[in-house]
Amino acid sequence: MRRQLRIALRTGIVTEPPPGRSDVERLGARLAGEIQRRFGRSLAIRQVDAGSCNGCELEIAGLTGPHYDLERFGLSFVASPRHADCLLVTGPVTRNMAEALRRTWEATPDPKLVIAVGDCGRDGGIFRGSYAVVGGADAVVPVDAVVPGCPPSPAAILAALLDVIGRRR
Amino acid sequence: MIATLLIALGQVLVAGAGAPLLVGVVRTLKARLAGRRGPSPWQPYADLRKLLGKEPVVSTTTSWVFRATPYVLVATMLVTALVVPILVARPALGFAGNIILLMYLFMLGTFFLALAGLDSGSAFGGMGSSREVAIAALAEPTIILAVFALALRAETINLGDVVERLAREPLLAANPAHLLAFVAFFIVMLAETGRLPVDNPATHLELTMIHEAMVLEYSGRYLALVEWASAMRLFVFMTLLANLFFPWGVTSLAEPVPLLLGLLALAGKLAVLAAALAVLETTVAKLRLFRVPELLAGSFALALLSVTAVFLVP
Amino acid sequence: MAAAGALAAAAIGLVALVLGLGGVAGSAWTVVVDWLVPLGGLELTLDPLAGLFLVLVGGVALPASFYAAGSAERSARGALAYPVFVASMCVVPLAANTMTFVIAWELMSLASYFLVLHEPEERASVRAAWVYAVMTHAGLACLLAGMLLMGAWTGSLRFADWRAAAPGLGAGARGVVFVLLAAGFAGKAGVIPLHVWLPLAHPAAPSHVSALMSGVMIKLGVYGLLRAGLDWLGAGPAWWGVAVLLAGTVSSVIGVLYALVDNDLKKLLAFSSIENVGIILIGVGAGMLYHGAGLEGLALLALAAALYHTLNHATFKALLFLGAGAVVHATGTRNMEAMGGLIKRMPWTAACFLVGSAAIAALPPLNGFVSEWLTFVALLQNTRIAQPMLNLVFALGVAGLALTSGLAMACFVKAFGITFLALPRGDAAARAHEAPPAMRAAMVALAVVCVALGLGATLVVPALVTVAGALTGDRAPVAVGDWLTLGVSGGFATLSTLAIAVALGAALALPLIALRLAGAARGQRRYETWGCGRMLQTPRMECTATAFADPFRRVFGFFYRPEKRLDITFHPGARYFVQRIEYANPTRSIFDDWLYRPALDALRSVAHRARAIQSGSANVYLAYIFAALLLLLALA
User: Fold this and answer.
1) Which CATH number is A69's domain given?
2) Do B220 and A109 make contact, defined as CB atoms within 8 angstroms?
3) Which of A72, C270, C396, C628 has the fewest beta carbons under 10 Å from its own?
């Protein structure tokens, strides 16, 4: 216990400065002002793996670590979609996960956002056209923004999240 | 009369408005110890405000018990804020109860929350309920023995009298019986408020959840009320630890200057306790569920030692 | 026919209630009818303690009889036994000499035997009635032995004469009588380890009878212990009080431990009765110890706490049994694993059962909380007796009581949650219907009484202190606060359930108003329970009663000694495929294994050897008669 405390105090804070502008693609006609007013200071994110290869998941997991630290912007990951404001969908939506993704979306209270992460989320990525894949996330749920990349880096994902909720850096 | 009402209102405001700040401070300290910048201490307020604007989704399996539980939780916490000496030794409802009443008011909240967990009809909710009531039941003997130890020294279990009588003994911080009772009560606080090493409040793994598992189905304003009640529970427990065992600063007068000093003293004591909690949560791993009874048995042994020490060290 | 019996019992109950209230208020009378009963005649005396127990009988018999009149669990055999049961329970507290007492006691046992046996075709029912009959008559034997010994030593069979002559008897004699009487009364009260009949008999009887048996009949065992420990034999030495206190502590903890793991709703309630009798006995034992040490104020407090818990338990246990009866009637089963979702189909029953569960879990501001609070406050002041061994016993009592109340809360979360909440676990539960109006009225009346006893604590406690004072012979008034606040022992502790109730009510309304004012989103959307996106959501995914009790089964494994039974049926064609898995995790009763089975086996082997006497030959029998004749001539 003491050793851990000593390491913690010696290492100090390693959080990097926030990333710059992102190249998030915005879809849908949601008012940016309304999103910022509601979620500008607090956004609960529920990540849904709709058949991804887990490359995007690894990048998203990096967000909770000390270097990228998404909690400093009021963003947090939650376990239950009932607690969530935003669904972070990764992967091309496979046939087996289509219904599960729809139920997760239905279980999330309104108002809610859906952000598709990665090229797979946009239109199926490298799995586009496969017999096992339904299409991008927008084939099953209404998508508000897409973060392009295969996989997008944590900095890119964080920048996209900040831009979607309109949070100043 | 007016002064009593104003102080009562003040206590409710301090407890209600200060509780999310306490939770936020602990979270920020934990983040700093983990090398992160972490959220701002005022983040819980933003979370609660956002939740109030969301339309809740309620499961078709549930009944009125599920929807009533958040209100019952908040009600029990607000009433405890009127009984516990937060600013003054004798708050408005101090005559109406004592530590045993507080113990049972907390149990009232746990009872309804456990029922709400069962009401959702999901396996997680029922699992959380059964674990939560098991831990609450096993923590009861320790609380009552700690109360007994305090009652032996102060010859009363009325909170106001205990605070005043203990405040007259400046050397009690060094009394072994007192310190043992404090440690035992601290462990019980960890169990009752769902902190590490008993329960991880930030876990996402349902199979490791105890308190969180019962609130998985709540959303919108119901979730806001449940989170607020849970923050108030931590606040009230920490205030009990601070003001009952180290009652410096708690005033018996109803004048502005002593009250302000009391508030500052409380803030200082809570800051120390919050820092201790943050350090503990960062350095200690969560116990396996069936090791928790051993921890509670250990705290019971400490409380028993504290009672016998009162006889040996007058 | 059965309705006539129920109405007769209700009338008797009403008379008892009125007489009892008079007795508590102070009216005292005696009725003597010499020729009605042999060996002393019928003698009835009303004093405050008897009055309190009459109030108990009447107060529970009234709603139970209305419930019986409205229920469909009728049978002709219960029609006569039920009013006899109620009437004999009224006579027991009033009895003033041995024969009256014993005859009323035996009538009570016989009547309840017939009521327990109301389904003679069921083997379980027959066994339950048999065990009950054996245990109650073993208790009767102890009672008779004690009372007749006392009669022989004091020269009279009247209780008033015992009161006068008891100080003259030696400590040994009084000790023997106390042990015999206590054993008999403890058996009736269901104290561990004499409790085996309770969890068998109470579930087997119809619900209104279970309510009376659990609410009133076992309290008559407590009545007897109060008389034996404090009244008839005078104040006893400390070991009497220690024995009662320890028996109460052990009973309460073990009772609730068994209740936690039971899946039969009525058996759970029966074990919970054992637990509550333990709590009452903790108060009685503390009272006896304080009385022996001369601390009259504390003795009155402890006894008042015990009497209050007696009243409260009668109310909420009767309520719970009537609710359980409605549930069993609607679903046709007592197994909690087949219930669920009943709150939507039986809202009134569910609401009343919730009040009863909250009351028995000692949640403020209901009545169970007040009596447990009083018991704690009485126990916590034990350092006024400056004897370390006694202080240790009290500390054990305190810790045991705290553990019991926590476990009782868990037990009733299980009882209410599994039975009424979530989705129905079986077809019968899915088709359940609400109870008929008479049953509903009885339950609502008892629920209202529970709330009233909790909020009106400041009115009830002074009356109980007076009753306790009449029992211990100390009539000095003890201050217990004013109309708003209960205050005990000169500032040791105060409680105001009325203030707490008002504060809780205001605090419940506050968030509602505040949310409205803050403009929070109103309304809600209905959707299915979050199941991690699973396709199929069935009631089989809910928490089961067995799963709910699992943490307790593990923590207290040394006590339950659970055995795991796993039965796997493989596919006949290939052993890699499983057709059916059956898992059971029953607990074993250590009392059955270590106490009753060895005792019964020993009895059986002795009886087997004694068979040798009956050889069947007439010559041997003539030889026995001749030997007996010679022996009697030699002795004469």
Assistant:
1) 3.40.50.12280
2) yes
3) C628
Indicate the residue of B82, B111, B151 with minimum beta-carbon distance to C358.
B111
H or E, element range at C607: helix C597-610
Whether residue C193 has a cis bond before it, omega within 30° of 0: yes
To the nearest whole angstrom, how far is the Cα of B280 from the nearest Cα of chain C? Answer: 26
Q: Is A136 part of any domain?
A: yes
| Residue B123 · residue C541 · CB < 8 Å | yes
SS3 C424: coil
Q: Which residue has the tokens 């009162």?
A: B310
Examine the pLDDT at C75 and tell me if it is beyond 80: no
* Residue A24 included in any domain: no
CA distance C549 to chain B (A): 7
Query: Could you tell me the two tokens for C155?
Result: 């020269």
If we measure between CA atoms, which residue out of B187, B142, B165, B297 comes closest to residue C395?
B142
Kindly indicate whether the ipTM for this predicted assembly is greater than 0.90, answering yes or no. yes
- Chains A, B: CB pairs < 8 Å: 98
User: How many residue contacts between A and C have a Cβ separation below 8 Å?
Assistant: 21
Q: Give the best residue of A7, A42, A70 to mutate against chain B (max B CB count within 10 A).
A: A42
Q: Going by DSSP bridges, is the β-strand pair C30-33/C42-45 parallel, antiparallel, or unpaired?
A: antiparallel
The Cα C525–Cα C531 span in angstroms is: 17
- Residue A28 pLDDT: 62
Residues of B in contact with A4 (CB under 8 A): 282-283
CA distances from residue A149 to A55, A136, B29 in whole angstroms, order as listed: 11, 14, 35
- Is residue A143 assigned to a domain? yes
- pTM (predicted TM-score): 0.94
A-chain residue closest to B223, CA distance: A83
* Cα B54 from chain centroid (whole Å): 27
pLDDT tens track for C349-393? 999 999 999 999 999 899 999 999 999 999 998 888 888 888 889
Q: CB under 8 Å, gap of 24 or more: what pairs does C571-580 form?
A: none
Classify C43 as helix, strand or coil: strand
Query: With contacts defined as CB-CB under 8 Å, which chain A residues touch C535?
Result: 99-100
Tokens in use for C281? Answer: 């006995």
Supply C231's token pair: 């009244």
Q: Provide the 8-state DSSP code for C86.
A: H
**CB-CB under 8 Å, C494 with B95:** yes
Cβ of C616: how many Cβ atoms within 10 Å?
Answer: 6
Nearest of C94, C347, C402, C73 to residue C211 by alpha carbon: C73
> Is the backbone peptide bond immediately before C365 cis, with ω within 30 degrees of 0?
yes
CA separation (Å) from C556 to C253, C337, C491, C562? 11, 22, 39, 10
- Report domain extents, chain B: 2-312
Alpha-carbon gap, residue C318 to B118, rounded angstroms: 25
For B134, the closest of C369, C541, C552 (CB atoms) is C552
How many domains does chain A divide into? 1
Question: For C128-185, what is the HEC assignment?
Answer: HHHHHHHHHHHHHHHHHHHHHHHHHHHCCCEHHHHHHHHHHCCHHHHHHHHHHHHHHH
Q: Categorize the per-residue pLDDT at C77 as very low, low, confident or very high, splitting at 50, 70 and 90.
A: low
Residue C198 to residue C191: CA distance in whole angstroms: 10
What the block records as the tokens of B130 is: 């059964």
DSSP class of B88: B
What is the per-residue pLDDT across C399-433, written as a single tens digit (0 to 9) for each? Answer: 999 999 999 999 999 999 999 998 999 888 888 88
List of chains touching C (3+ CB pairs within 8 A): A, B
Within a domain: A125: yes
> Residue A122's domain spans which residues?
29-165
Give per-residue burial for C572-610: e unless 16+ CB within 10 Å, then b: eeeeeeeeeeeeebebebebeeeeeeeeeeeeeeeeeee
